[in-house]
Amino acid sequence: MATPVMAIVGRPNVGKSTLFNKIVGERIAIVEDRPGITRDRIFAASEWSGNSFRIIDTGGLDFGEDDEIAGRIRAQVELAIDEANVIVFLVDGLTGLTSADEEIADHLRRSHKPVIVAVNKADHPGRLSHAYEFYQLGFGEALSISAEHGLGIGDLLDEIVNHFPRDQEEPTYAEDAIRIAIIGRPNVGKSSMINALLGEDRVLVSNIAGTTRDAIDTELTYAGNPYVLIDTAGVRKRGKVYEKTEKYSVLRALRAIERCDVAVLVIDGEQGIIEQDKHVVGYALEAGKALVIAVNKWDIVEKDHKTAQIFEKNLRSHFPFLSWAPVVFVSAKTGRRVSRVLELSSHVAEQHALRIQTSTVNTIVQEAVSLTPPPTDKGRRLKVLYATQVSVKPPTFAVFVNTPELMHFSYVRYLENQLRQSFGFEGTPIRILVRQRS
Ligand code: GDP
Ligand code: GDP
């Protein structure tokens, strides 16, 4: 089930960022700083009484040239309507109801999304003379809060969580269908790739399943295998203001990544690799998804027999943490090798779900340890006692040791490489948990 999403909307200066920060607290900082991962604050994960959810940082979206405040508010509200399950409409209790608030309310009312009105800056409970005005917006009771002083936030969160859909309708697909998310920065050719895949002679597009109004997935069959392309509508541009922002496209990709088995990272072969490519793939990696890298627009790259090899070498040096991901050179325009993307997706999905017997894992790990024993640290030596695979998607191993503090990052890396050498795991991240054996 997809994680519910909440968005805060409201005119400038009502306290949206203050509320966002209050709810999210310190949580964002925790996940930062892992290799290959750049974190934008597009949305943050949070939790309240056992319910995980996400908050879109609508205030943090940069709407580019659309500088007019009215335009920015509209874009923000549209984004919230399209993407959120619950909307918190934040108003300013010190200034009272304004015509801008009424405009936002009109817009929100037409969306039929659950809306909670929160009257901010109620720093002194009972002294908010304006709070009653906001009842006339027609969204029911308006909750008084103080984002700055942390008052009423618990009640607001209770209300938010109450409005989350109980069972989000997830469409059902063939059980063995491989879910693919085509990801990449704008203009690399994602929608062309989807068109090419669906237009392939040998591809059978069986039907189109709607999840929500915006996320349209497409099922297809190739060489007898079922696949689902996640969020094909989202990839094809629809021309709303907010869709032009880079952060929005990352947000969209994130939600597709969450629902996929395999992420296909599309790179522009003509332009080469830029920083933004790393952002997008960082999320797939963090989510533990299988990965295929498709270098697109290969038709317009001037090349000889070595060009692909050189490109791949360069690409690998940009993505040292993705050495396990297969690379394919394609042209969405001519259709060349696009079906290979599906074949590779099947292969990496299999690797992603691979389960190795404990006895075999132990044999390999013990062999690895005797080949290169763990280094000593101040006279103490790490002992690797036992290893087992605890889960799949991605393959996750627990390695039990005498003293976890003695385990170095480089030794974990070494064990990972040994597991890869023995079992492949092509196209999938693997995780190693170091645990104390008591
Ligand atoms: P945004 O533009 O809606 O994101 O608003 P900000 O979060 O940037 O806040 C605008 C101003 O309102 C800032 O000066 C905040 O310090 C102030 N503010 C936010 N929440 C409260 C509150 O609960 N009480 C008071 N008195 N001021 C607040
Ligand atoms: P998206 O923003 O990632 O969905 O990218 P689009 O699919 O809209 O493609 C961006 C531009 O690149 C369009 O002008 C496409 O025609 C062009 N394009 C996409 N794939 C290829 C390709 O394989 N070869 C060439 N020459 N152009 C391509």
Automatic annotation (TrEMBL):
<dbReference type="InterPro" id="IPR016484">
    <property type="entry name" value="GTPase_Der"/>
</dbReference>
<comment type="function">
    <text>GTPase that plays an essential role in the late steps of ribosome biogenesis.</text>
</comment>
<dbReference type="InterPro" id="IPR005225">
    <property type="entry name" value="Small_GTP-bd"/>
</dbReference>
<dbReference type="GO" id="GO:0042254">
    <property type="term" value="P:ribosome biogenesis"/>
</dbReference>
<keyword id="KW-0547">Nucleotide-binding</keyword>
<dbReference type="InterPro" id="IPR006073">
    <property type="entry name" value="GTP-bd"/>
</dbReference>
<dbReference type="GO" id="GO:0043022">
    <property type="term" value="F:ribosome binding"/>
</dbReference>
<feature type="domain" description="EngA-type G">
    <location>
        <begin position="178"/>
        <end position="353"/>
    </location>
</feature>
<feature type="domain" description="EngA-type G">
    <location>
        <begin position="4"/>
        <end position="168"/>
    </location>
</feature>
<keyword id="KW-0690">Ribosome biogenesis</keyword>
<dbReference type="Pfam" id="PF01926">
    <property type="entry name" value="MMR_HSR1"/>
</dbReference>
<dbReference type="GO" id="GO:0005525">
    <property type="term" value="F:GTP binding"/>
</dbReference>
<keyword id="KW-0342">GTP-binding</keyword>
<protein>
    <recommendedName>
        <fullName>GTPase Der</fullName>
    </recommendedName>
</protein>
<dbReference type="InterPro" id="IPR031166">
    <property type="entry name" value="G_ENGA"/>
</dbReference>
<comment type="subunit">
    <text>Associates with the 50S ribosomal subunit.</text>
</comment>
<dbReference type="InterPro" id="IPR015946">
    <property type="entry name" value="KH_dom-like_a/b"/>
</dbReference>
<feature type="binding site">
    <location>
        <begin position="120"/>
        <end position="123"/>
    </location>
    <ligand>
        <name>GTP 1</name>
    </ligand>
</feature>
<keyword id="KW-0677">Repeat</keyword>
<comment type="similarity">
    <text>Belongs to the TRAFAC class TrmE-Era-EngA-EngB-Septin-like GTPase superfamily. EngA (Der) GTPase family.</text>
</comment>
<feature type="binding site">
    <location>
        <begin position="57"/>
        <end position="61"/>
    </location>
    <ligand>
        <name>GTP 1</name>
    </ligand>
</feature>
<dbReference type="InterPro" id="IPR032859">
    <property type="entry name" value="KH_dom-like"/>
</dbReference>
<feature type="binding site">
    <location>
        <begin position="231"/>
        <end position="235"/>
    </location>
    <ligand>
        <name>GTP 2</name>
    </ligand>
</feature>
<dbReference type="InterPro" id="IPR027417">
    <property type="entry name" value="P-loop_NTPase"/>
</dbReference>
<feature type="binding site">
    <location>
        <begin position="184"/>
        <end position="191"/>
    </location>
    <ligand>
        <name>GTP 2</name>
    </ligand>
</feature>
<dbReference type="Pfam" id="PF14714">
    <property type="entry name" value="KH_dom-like"/>
</dbReference>
<feature type="binding site">
    <location>
        <begin position="10"/>
        <end position="17"/>
    </location>
    <ligand>
        <name>GTP 1</name>
    </ligand>
</feature>
<dbReference type="InterPro" id="IPR003593">
    <property type="entry name" value="AAA+_ATPase"/>
</dbReference>
<feature type="binding site">
    <location>
        <begin position="296"/>
        <end position="299"/>
    </location>
    <ligand>
        <name>GTP 2</name>
    </ligand>
</feature>
